[in-house]
Amino acid sequence: MKKIVMNHVVKNFFTLRRGKVEALKDINLIIEPGKFFVLLGPSGCGKSTLLNIIAGIEKPSSGEILFDEQKIVSNREKIFLSPRQRDVAMVFQSYALYPHMSVFDNIAFPLKIGKLEKSEIKKKVEQVAEILEISQIMEAKPSELSGGQRQRVALGRAIVREPSVLLLDEPLSNLDALLRISMRSELKQIQRRIGVTTIYVTHDQTEAMSLGDNIAVLKDGEIQQLGTPEQIYKEPANLFVARFMGTPPMNIIEGQKFEQISEKLELKIEAKTDEIYLGIRPEHLNITSPEKGIFQASVNLVGSQGNERLIYLSLNDQEIICREYQEVDLKEDQKVGITFDADKVFVFLKKDGSSLNRKS
Q: What are the structural domains, with CATH classification, of the chain?
């Protein structure tokens, strides 16, 4: 297990069409030993670039990275350790299994390169196969495996040599929805069992919330927020994080539309209403009769998702979403009242999107 420290990591690309592209801007991170750390963000935010720099596949433009007390990258000191010297293992989205090799030989491949004794290789591969519950398919070829089995084989090849750091670049994205859910749980259990420091890249906030001990949310090469899944969901640092975390996303409403209700809620806002957005998560809105509501809206659509109902409402020409966990008898264009608690309201400044709610 390694502690990973990143200090002022920057990565610039240069293209003929766009010139200088700042892929990563002054990244500073500390990842504690044995933790499952998630890099989360939309496509093009820099998360895979950062993972490749940690792996040694790419060089940063500036900055340094340490594994425990050892510098593995330092532009100033001209240090750049190779991936093998860093003792990292990586699992890609495509799995990259050798099609002509059996499952056993795919998993054993890094050990054979390391020139271990055959008996030791057999012992280690069988141990990993037992952990991953794939002992029964060791003679099969990759073409004969399901997506979930191929994912396990790729993971087995990565962990069989007991790396100090495990890097995972969207390894579940090619699986169907049901298999992704089950594999999340398995992946987390395996990581806890082997105890390796793990960095996981994803654009899926549900995946990040279910897997990560800690999450870094990235946008345009910058870290927007660091914290536990609960901290990031309950105390978003800014408007981007608030919208990105949560399905359905947080309702964002112009501050002026709340002028008439602020007194009802006793909601004190330290900014002019035309300078802010107000945010309310769908699960914090409640449907009532029009006369009992803090404000009124009309029903656009009621959608069912298993044991929950998503109610799409029109509020002053803006659509908002309410999540209910009970049956609702609502019709299209019906007028309803909306209630919510003042302490569930988020306030964001328009000028930079920063949150006025955040405690730290």
A: 4-239 (3.40.50.300), 250-349 (2.40.50.140)
